[in-house]
UniProtKB/TrEMBL annotation:
Protein name: Acetylornithine aminotransferase
Binding partners and assembly: Homodimer.
Entry-annotated residues carrying N6-(pyridoxal phosphate)lysine: K246
Stored Gene3D superfamilies: Aspartate Aminotransferase, domain 1, Type I PLP-dependent aspartate aminotransferase-like (Major domain)
GO molecular function, one term: N2-acetyl-L-ornithine:2-oxoglutarate 5-aminotransferase activity
SUPFAM superfamilies recorded: PLP-dependent transferases (SSF53383)
Assigned protein family: Belongs to the class-III pyridoxal-phosphate-dependent aminotransferase family. ArgD subfamily.
Amino acid sequence: MNTKEIMDLDKKYVMQTYGRQPLALEKGSGAVVWDVEGKSYIDCVAGIAVNNVGHAHPKVVEAICKQAKNLIHTSNIYYTEEQVTLAELLAEVSPHDKAFFCNSGAEANEGAIKLARKHTGKGEIITMKNSFHGRTITTITATGQTKYQKNFGPLTPGFSYVDYCDVEAAADAITDNTAAVLVEPVQGEGGVIVPPKDYLKELKAVCHENDVLIIFDEVQTGFGRTGSMFASQTFDVTPDITSLAKAIAGGFPMGAVLASGEVGETFEPGDHAATFGGSPLACAAAKASINVTLEENLLEKSRENGAYFKAKLEAIKDKNDVVVDVRGIGLMLGMELNFQCGELVDKMRENGIIVNCTAGNVLRFVPPLLISREQIDTVTSVLEEVLQDY
Ligand SMILES: *Cc1c(COP(=O)(O)O)cnc(C)c1O
């Protein structure tokens, strides 16, 4: 089918929840994707920070094929070697020692919230304005942006919101009934907002002084995006609970809740479950993807190529008044413009680069971590050229 035919069928048969680009993708390899007309694009979206190990990585493909031939799914009322060895690997690479497996970021945050409520015996959760935590009723409630909540009330009780990067506001919002503070170590959907260096450390201190848990939503920042396996390591702050999804299984759908010590011992049989959570197929994909991240030094690449990419974006900013800000860490970069960036995204795409616009006027660059310097050069030179029109 060509792009037009696919778009027509979508319109007819798929609920129109997405503001989609007029682009139908068919295959990918590394940091490149191809549309159904055969045109290639450098991928600075990576399925929104999902394809961290690139598209069609042979080791991930092999792990999925091999596992699919053995056992795709079984119930969590049975054990599998794939699930326990993935949990062991996560304990090795993360600051935590226990995992619960689910299927998405929203589900991971739901699990994290349940865990915090049960562990503390308290109900209230403090989250940040401008945050993003998912699209279920409870996670749109956690998301501190009314545009995601409108039309979907009543919302889940027990949530309050404070400004991101404001430790004092969080301290003031804590009550005797506060279970946890839920925070993205770097706000993603909100426009790639990197907090000041000590913010997360101070926030954790305030939480612990008040017997409140701190949860990091690392759904977007996890698995090398900020230059370490987890942003908690980049910022050198260990939360009580971490929620994960997006890049965890190289593009295969999966989520996880990680916790340490007593917090990780809270759930008992019957407390929480997911039919598909931690299926052998998802776990095989996740193990392969995490091992590729380690073996191919993708954390170092994220740091080094991220710094290279950011410097090039900063050079563009210096020459263009329409660029308000360049920010980010590792390969999670944002360029804030003084205009809505939808049309610029179209022009980039027409020139063979896919990039995403978030928060209305922020170009978000979250490419596969194995993107090459040559590919980065192509992206920034196209961007520079396209910006001439503004
Ligand atoms: C994408 C995202 C989510 C939601 O993940 P889904 O898999 O779409 O449910 C939650 N939190 C953050 C920080 C995200 O970036």
